[in-house]
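Q: I'm writing up a methods section and want to include an example of the input and output format. Could you take the sequence below and give the corresponding predicted structure tokens, formatted cleanly so I can copy it straight into the document?
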Amino acid sequence: MTPPDPKTSVEEDQSGAAERRAKGEFVRGVSGFRHALGDPDFPAEPGRYHLFVALNCPWCHRVVLARGVLGLTDAITMDVAFPNRTEEDDPDGGGLWEFAPERVATLTGGTLPECTRETGTGRGLRLAKEVYRAEGSEEQSLPLLYDKKTGRIVNNESAEILRMLNEHAGALGSTDAERPDLYPADDALRSEIDGLNAEIYTAINNGAYKAGFSSDQAVYAQALAAYFEALAALEARLADGRAFLTGDRFTEADLRLFPTLFRHDPVYYVRMKLNGARILDYPNLWRWLCRVHALPGVAESGSLIHCRQGYFGRSWNRVVPLGPFHPMPYPEAYGHPELAG
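A: Here is the clean output for your methods example:
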């Protein structure tokens, strides 16, 4: 068996990207800031680093999850953007992440308490793009790991950020002596995690976007099939009664799978056209999802209100679906593993 290429679990192959996009395929771009904590310029220190995130974004979710489960919520400060980006009539243009706690969500008819002003730079910037512009970049993606001491961007690739947070959790000021090690120093286990990461990223994490944002029926159908084939394989993997994907310990592979499955039933089933089945229809995956959701630091690291608002609030009429209600509303359902039978 050929060892998995670590790049396939981090970023998508960019070969012929322009032509593929022109034919209707969604092709994810590559993050441009790839510095590492622990480098001479970015030593791991408590209170020095800041995260810019949007809670509806699954790539941000994996980083916020790492911050939560590793006991870093006090050590790493964080700003949360409004789940819908700027409108086309915005002075700076449309489609930009905005730190605007005064914006009203169509779903709730009010502001969202998790949304914040921008505090990481100390300049009260409105847009994530402005953080990038200070370094001469035209990127504007989230998440973004920022060094408050030097005023520089460290990294904006979620897979690398979460691994750095795990590696340096103690030096960064983790308050949790019982925190999990998401990527243990065991070669066989690391190889297993890397393989799972590659499969999960390609078919499930990025595959959901391949299905949902494709404008070509055949590309969509291929992504849909790959997504549900991967779910079936994970369902079979969990059939032996193991608690987590690699056995009895929660690892990076579980963390990276969770944001997509957390969104599937209440959001992706409709928005991403992934209506082949619910996670609730996979008993082992459903119980795994409930098990992970119950771990310390997990439930408070995500928001289905932000997810629903972010994915549906950008639609042409801005009406956000309120369901599903059967057999139970979400996220309350994640407290009931028995719903899967």
